[in-house]
Design brief:
Protein name: Iron-containing redox enzyme
Organism: Acinetobacter bohemicus
Number of strands: 0
Largest sheet: none
Distance between the termini: 42 Å
Helix content: 55-70%
Number of helices: 11
CATH superfamily: Heme oxygenase-like
CATH architecture: Up-down Bundle
InterPro entries: Haem_Oase-like_multi-hlx
Order of helices and strands: HHHHHHHHHHH
Length: about 280
């Protein structure tokens, strides 16, 4: 078994997660954990994760031209602006300084611990090689890796003629939620689940045409598997759910459910359109 990178280190993460759990009353944590788990289950059980295109991708049924079409749309839908949203939620952690859930003595600390966990995600996104920091480079950021993949696929990211409305809808969805720490956490947690599921399927189909397509962007997406791959999406997802448990507002449950439903529906619309236009 290889040594985990520091963004996958259980010691650092458990320290932060332990503080987060203890920063609010135990009864409140248990109540919120149940409610947040319900949100997660709603997400996992959504038709988005059962769409026919997942099977088609996993069976390597799509042509290279069809995959090119999907990738220019996926770039617009999420890749181009993912770190924008992640950077904003790191900033909005300042709301924890005055958060009623958190013990008053822990409120300023809470901002630092939340930002630590969220920054592990951002560090991965920005191209830090967390096994060997000397190998870090912005050229290895996930966004640049995706741009490199588009170049390999001979797709021009500036050519938006093939980008569908459903991709633009996802691109714009986060904007009105940027002031809300909790809304951004919920969006990001759901986005991580989507990335884990669909990135793996896309990688499998692309490998049919050239193993080189599975390097770079797809080598750093997925779950921790104790190899030297930098994939770490499951840890990041778990951290986001924990942070939402800390700051969850039961009075806003209906709003959270509505937000989740809207976001999942946009992803279902997107992947259904990708399925229809590649059939």
């Amino acid at each position: 078994m290889s040594t985990l990178s520091f963004t996958q280190s259980e010691n650092a993460r458990l320290e932060a997660l332990s503080f987060i759990k203890k920063s609010i009353p135990a009864t409140l944590w248990n109540k919120h954990a149940h409610e947040v788990q319900q949100l997660k289950q709603t997400c996992l059980q959504h038709p988005l994760f059962q769409l026919p295109i997942l099977t088609r991708l996993s069976n390597q049924n799509l042509s290279l031209e069809q995959l090119k079409f999907i990738h220019i749309n996926y770039f617009t839908a999420i890749v181009k602006n993912f770190t924008d949203t992640l950077s904003m939620v790191i900033y909005q952690a300042l709301q924890l300084e005055n958060h009623e859930n958190i013990h008053e003595v822990d409120r300023i600390h809470a901002k630092a611990y939340a930002r630590y966990l969220l920054s592990l995600n951002l560090i991965d996104e920005l191209g830090f090689n967390t096994y060997e920091l000397s190998l870090s480079s912005p050229a290895r950021s996930h966004l640049v890796y995706f741009m490199d993949l588009l170049k390999l696929l001979q797709v021009n990211p500036l050519d938006q003629k093939q980008v569908v409305t459903e991709a633009y809808d996802l691109n714009q969805f986060n904007h009105p939620h940027l002031p809300s720490y909790n809304n951004l956490l919920l969006i990001l947690a759901c986005a991580e689940l989507q990335v884990i599921k669909y990135s793996e399927a896309l990688r499998i189909n692309l490998e049919k045409y050239d193993v080189q397509f599975s390097y770079g962007y797809y080598a750093c997406h997925g779950v921790v598997d104790h190899s030297e791959k930098l994939a770490n999406d499951d840890n990041h997802e778990d951290d986001i759910w924990a942070l939402l448990t800390q700051s969850y507002q039961s009075s806003q449950q209906h709003s959270y459910e509505q937000l989740l439903g809207q976001y999942l529906q946009l992803w279902q619309n997107f992947w259904s359109k990708m399925d229809t236009l590649t059939t």
